[in-house]
Amino acid sequence: MLIGEVARRSGVSARMLRHYESLGLMRPSGRTGSGYREYSGEDIRRIFHIESLRSLGLSLREIGRALDDPGFTPSALVDDLIRQTRDRIAAETELLTRLRRIDAADPAGWEDVLQAVAFLQALGSQSAATRQRAALSSVDEVPVPVEALVEAVLRETEPNVAGALRWALARSGDGGTALLAEGLGSPVAAVRERAVQSLAEMPGDEATARLRDALANPDVVVRGHAAVTLGTRGIADAVPTLIDMIVAGRNDTDAADALSMLASDATTADQIATRLVDRLAHDTTEAPARVRLTQALADIPGSTASCALVELSHDGNRAVALTAAYLLQLRDAR
C-alpha cells in the first residue's frame, strides 16, 4: 500500500508518516520498482499502535521506546502518565480558579486585572509579611477577589496575617459570608474555627444569621465563638450556649461578659438570672462550675439575680457562699 492510501485509511497525514520515518519510529517494509514507499499490513498495525499511544499523551520518543524495548514495563509508564496528568490537571485547575477570581472582581481595565493578579500572587506567597501587606492593601484601589480572601483566611496560620485577612474580608462586603459559612462544615477543626472567627468580624444581618445557625454546630468551639459574638450583638438566642461555656469553663470570662451585655435589657436579665440559678441547682453541676455560675451573676442586674446571691451566700459549698457574699457586698456598694 502506497503512502497516499495509508494516509487516507489511517487518518495520519503523509507528512506525519514521513516524520515518523525520519525519527526511526517506523519505516515502510518495502519500495516499489519506482522507489515509492510501500507499507505492509504489519507497518499499518504499527502506525495504529503509535497513534494509540499518542492518544495517551506519550511523546514520540517514549512511543519508540515502548514499541522497541523488549524490557519495557508498561505499568511504570502508565503510572508516570497518571502522575503527569494529575499535575497538568492541578495546574490547569489552579489557572481556571485564578481566572474566575479575577473575573469575579469585575476589573474595569487591564490595570485592574494586573493588580488582581499581583494581589493573588501575594496572597499565595511563602512570606507572612508579603501576605499581610496584601491583606492590608486598600480594597478601594485593588479589585479584591472575595473567594481568594476567604480561602486565604481559612488556611492562614499566622495570627497577625489572619487578623489582617479578616479585616480585609470584612471591608470587602458580605460576599464572603456564605463561603465562610461553608467553612463551618469543614472536617478540619482549625478551619472551622477560622471560619467562625471571620464570620464574627463580618458586618450585616446575613453574618448574624449565619452565626445564629452556628449555635447548632456540633463543634463546641464554633458554638462558643458564635455565642460570644451574638451576645455582644444583643441576640438572646446565645444565652443557653453562653451558660454552657461557663459551666464547662471554656472561655467562660468572655461568655460571662457577653451575658452581662445581654442583661442590659431588664426582661432578658431576669431570664439569664433564672437560667443561671437553674444550672446552679442541677445535681450534676460540679463545684468549680457552681463557683463560675455564681460569679456570672455579678453583672446581672435585677431582683432575680440579687435574691439568688442572697440564697447562695448560705450555700453548703464554702467557695460558692463566700463568692456570693462578696458579690452582694459589691452590689450594695453601688
From TrEMBL:
InterPro entries tied to this protein: ARM-like, ARM-type_fold, DNA-bd_dom_put_sf, MerR-type_HTH_dom, MerR_fam, PBS_lyase_HEAT
Pfam families: HEAT_2 (PF13646), MerR_1 (PF13411)
An example molecular function term from Gene Ontology annotations: DNA-binding transcription factor activity
Domain HTH merR-type: 1-69
Protein keywords: DNA-binding
The keyword DNA-binding belongs to this UniProt entry's keyword annotation: yes
UniProt xrefs under PANTHER family: HTH MERR-TYPE DOMAIN-CONTAINING PROTEIN, REDOX-CYCLING DRUG-SENSING TRANSCRIPTIONAL ACTIVATOR SOXR
Protein name: Transcriptional regulator
Taxon lineage: Bacteria, Bacillati, Actinomycetota, Actinomycetes, Kitasatosporales
